[in-house]
Structure formats: C-alpha cells, structure tokens
Specification:
The chain contains 23 helices and 25 strands. The chain has about 550 residues and is of the alpha/beta class. Bound molecules: zinc ion (ZN). The site of zinc ion has 7 residues, from helix 12 and helix 14.
Length: about 550
C-alpha cells in the first residue's frame, strides 16, 4: 500500500492511496454494494461516478453466494474492501463464523482490503462490557494480522469512552494495519451526537500512526463529511444512498429531506435536472433515481472538500457547513480541547485568507499559534479586527488580513518590513536581514522586492510574507542559529538539492520541530551547510512518519 499526501489543511489531506497497483485519491467515498439488492451495479457506478473503490460485506457474501473471485463476481476491477460481519454481530448479538474463518474467506475470494471480526460496542454501553469487547477485538486483530494475505483494516473500538479509544489506538498501532477504521459510530450519527463523534475521532487520530488512512465506518451522509475530513478522516462508506432512497429520503449536504415534504428538487445533478419532483415521485424507478441523486450529492460534497483542501480553505468551508445543523456547530467547538495537537499538523500559512464567520473562528488552532508568534514582534498593536489585536505593519499579512479591502493609507516602510520579518522568522531577525538593503515597489506601488547586491527576498502579494532567493537564504542562514528554520537533507541527495530538485520526505533527516507545514525553510546538509530554500510541505510529525511525498518544495538552490 502507498499513501502519499498531495495537499493538506487542518488534519485533512488529499492523498494518493494505492492498493494492489490500483490508485484512488482520498478523501474518498466507498459506496456499499449489497449483491442481494443491486440497486446500482458497481459497473454503473464506475461509468456514472468514476467510482474506483467499493465496499461489500464479506459475511453476507459468505452466507448467500458461492464466490471464487470477488472482482469477477461483482464485475468491478477497482479496489474492493470488505467488512467482516461485525455489524451483524452488533445487531444480532451473535453470528455463526469465527474470526479465523472470515479472514481466510476474504483471502480466498481476493478482496483488496479485508476486515477482521472486531466486536463493536454501542456508544454508552456498560464500561466493563466495552473494555471486555475491546480486549477481544485486539486479540482478534493480532490473530488476523498473522492470517491475512494482503491489506487489512484494524478497526478501533471502545464505545464512547475516550480512554478506551486511546488504548485501542495505541494497541492496534502495534500490529501495523494498513487502514484504521473508527468503528461503531453509526448510533452517534443517527443521534446527531456529533460532539462525541468529534472527541472520538480526535482521540483516535492523536494515537494512530499519522501515515495511515482512517476510515470513518458507516458515515455516509454528506452533512458530516466536511467536519470529519477536517478532523483527519480519509475514507467514508455509504449505504445511506440506498437506505435513504428506500425510505423516500433525499440527501443534501445540508441535511435530509423527505420527498413528500418537498416542492422542488434543489439540485442540478442529471436526475434532478431531468425530472420534476412530481415526475420523480411518479416514476416506476423512483428508488433507483433517488439513490442516484443521493450518490451525486454525496460525491459532490467530497469534491468540494477536496477543492477546499487544495486551496487551503477547509476551515472556512467547515465553518460554513457547521451552520447546517446546531449539533455540528457545537461539535466544532470541541476542537478547542485538541488545539495543541491540531496546530502541530495544520498548515500555518494558507493560500486563502482566514474568514471571520463568527465567534467560533477564534478557536482555530492557527489563531492561537499566530497569537503566540505575535510575541516575537515588539511593535505596538495599534490595529484590531474581530480576531486579533495586531501591529499596523501586519495589516496585509496572513492571518491578520481578514478584512482584505481594508482601506489603509499606508505602505510598508523599513520599520514595518522589520515587523513582518520578525513575525515570520523570529525576534530580531528583521533588523539584521534588512541591513544595507534597498526596496523596489510593484506596479501597484507596494514594496515587493528587497535587494542587497542582488535580490534577497520577495514580499508575496497574496499574504504579505517573505519568500527568499538563494542570496536571501544565505543571509537568513547566517542570522538564525542551528536548528532554527532548518531541514537537514541526507548526504545522498545533496547534489540533487543543489540542482534545485525537491527534498523528498524519505531523505529529510532532521528538522526544527517548531516548524509548521507550508512555512519557508532552509535546507542544509549534515554539517549545516546551506543547500537551498523552499516551502515545507509536511508538518514535523508527518516528516517523521511519511516515507513518501515531498518534504520541501525547493524555491531556490544555493549557487556555489
Ligand atoms: Zn440531484
């Protein structure tokens, strides 16, 4: 299995997931296929939605069919994940198959990702029972790891008890599963208990290996996707599209509607464009058409989330989405308790300005982090917006530039450039860096370029933060003592960095652990010789665990 981050925001990530040579991009939806009730076939899904990963229940398959090869049986060449029958176990209390048998069965029929027979404990079950169930789950996980040929889900149980979820995450991490599903959360979703869901996800995330995908088992409603992706969930499965269709219910990213209560079809998918509500209700194919709409709505929300990760606006997007249900809004506030953990992974510099959407914007980990960094700056804080008190010099600098069209009759001068520099690289760095420099303005009459003998730095228009040239990096390297703002490259890649090639995560040896993703950094060799400068693409925690992906995107290699 390959899992490689392409873009990130919050704990969310757009990543390449490759299993048995088949590639998908997460966050991703896995439609649940029920071969007993094939409403939409996998082939049709692939044609209509470009579906390249599906999930089926191996217990149902085992009971109802004689299967040699699951891909042939389902007529689907993408990734097939199977669940184990744990859901039936939770529903009926007992099933007639052992953990060993169900794992071997999944080996035999050739699934891409198998699941062992974990014991799901409902939220708020008796603590002793939850603990006992969890011990059995962990034992079975260990047994399955030995038996499974290929990728295996390591489901995390522990009911609504955070100490048990933590224990489960730590124990299960030892067996190096490929994907970590968070199990038995469906009752919480049904009850709209998104606060407990948030706590469970963040507890698990904190103790699971960061380089493995997390699957939120049974979460298929687009209402909760944005929040749960922000919290670090990568995979979702949806039986909801079909179950809700059977029940006359119409899914949207802002909630569930009943067809009988509606007057319009407020969507532009092929189904809602072709049919009026009356025609849809009267159609013989109503359930299938409704299921198709439900899938369109579900996939659309995933695409919107991916786009917002790509442009680093996921927090803004989530803050608009949590207004779709009060329980989502309250759940979002739980994030505050996990701020330290999140801020170490969340990119500190974003391509999109911070939007102030309401009081809850202030709990973003980035806000706390920016306030900490303001302490590097000695200039008086003579400006304020709903989130920050800040010095005027930072009025155009991210994240203080909330009011983009603020009518300020000032431009940077030498003093304000120092303030920006201190904020970005540390107290006192601005004065030293700007010694014997001149500035050049842009066409819009704003200071944009800092020159020594050559160009040293550019003040980026988007967020009013500095990017360095080769000469500028040399100057900063002399000012900042090791290990500040540095990422050390392994010796074997030194010639490549000097050619301007990116530093891959695998070859990053050590780094300043106070750095945050998307900051400008210096790349050095093992003797602190400067090789280049660029943008740090991963957080220190991710650098530690990810073998793949770019660690530093090199902007300029040092000219020798
Ligand atoms: Zn529609």
């Amino acid at each position: 299995m390959i899992f490689e981050i392409r873009a990130k925001d919050g704990l969310g990530r757009v990543a390449k997931l490759s299993i048995n040579g088949k590639n998908i991009e997460t966050p991703c939806l896995m439609p649940v296929i029920n071969p007993n009730l094939p409403l939409i076939t996998p082939k049709e899904m692939k044609r209509l939605f470009k579906t390249d990963i599906i999930i089926a229940n191996s217990y149902t398959l085992y009971k109802s069919f004689d299967i040699e090869n699951i891909h042939k049986f389902l007529d689907f060449d993408g990734i097939i994940v199977t669940d184990s029958g744990s859901f039936q176990l939770m529903q009926y209390g007992d099933i007639d198959i052992t953990n060993k048998e169900i794992v071997k069965y999944q080996n035999k029929i050739g699934v891409d990702v198998a699941t062992f027979l974990d014991v799901p404990t409902k939220p708020y079950a008796n603590y002793e029972k939850a603990k006992k169930d969890l011990e059995i789950t962990i034992e079975r996980g260990e047994e399955a790891r030995m038996l499974r040929e290929g990728e295996l889900n390591g489901t995390i149980q522990g009911s609504a008890y955070l100490d048990l979820r933590k224990y489960a995450s730590i124990q299960m991490s030892k067996y190096d599963f490929d994907i970590y599903p968070i199990g038995a959360v469906v009752p919480l979703l049904m009850e709209y208990d998104f606060s407990k869901l948030t706590e469970i996800i963040l507890t698990c995330k904190k103790y699971l290996p960061i380089n493995k995908p997390v699957h939120l088992f049974g979460a298929g409603h687009p209402l909760t996707f944005a929040l749960t992706v922000l919290l670090g969930c990568d995979l979702f499965d949806s039986a909801a599209y079909a179950l809700y269709a059977n029940d006359n219910r119409y899914l949207t990213s802002y909630g569930t509607k009943n067809l009988n209560d509606m007057k319009y079809l407020p969507c532009s998918c092929p189904i809602c464009s072709k049919y009026t509500l009356e025609e849809l209700k009267a159609s013989e194919e109503k359930i299938k058409l409704l299921a198709l709409h439900n899938l369109y709505a579900t996939y659309e929300e995933i695409k919107k989330i991916k786009e917002s990760i790509h442009e680093n606006s996921l927090w803004n997007f989530v803050e608009s989405r949590i207004r779709n249900h009060p329980r989502l809004y309250y759940a979002y506030k739980k994030i505050k308790e996990y701020s330290d953990y999140i801020s170490k992974i969340d990119p500190f510099i974003k391509n999109t300005p911070l939007f102030y959407t309401g009081e809850e914007t202030k709990i973003r980990p980035l806000v706390t982090e920016a306030k900490k960094r303001l302490k590097r700056v000695s200039t008086k804080r003579d400006m304020s917006n709903p989130v920050f008190n800040y010095p005027k010099a930072l009025a155009f600098t991210f994240p203080f530039n909330i009011e983009r069209d603020i009518d300020l009759d000032f431009d940077q001068n030498a003093e304000s450039l120092k303030t920006i520099f201190d904020y970005q690289f540390g107290r006192g760095t601005g004065k030293k860096f700007l010694e014997e420099t001149t500035v050049k303005k842009s066409k819009t009459n704003r200071i944009r370029y800092i020159y020594g003998k050559e160009l040293l730095a550019t003040l980026r228009a988007r967020d009013n933060l500095f990017t360095l040239t080769s000469e500028g990096a040399k100057r900063l390297h002399r000012i900042l003592r090791y290990p500040h703002y540095r990422v050390m490259a392994s010796e074997e890649v030194v010639p490549f960095i000097l050619e301007g090639r990116d530093l891959l995560s695998k070859f990053a040896v050590s780094w300043d652990t106070d750095l945050r993703a998307y900051e400008e950094v210096l790349v050095i060799d093992s003797s602190d010789f400067l090789l280049g400068t660029g943008k740090l693409m991963l957080s220190p925690k991710e650098l530690e665990y990810f073998e793949r992906g770019v660690a530093v995107k090199i902007r300029a290699a040092v000219k020798l």
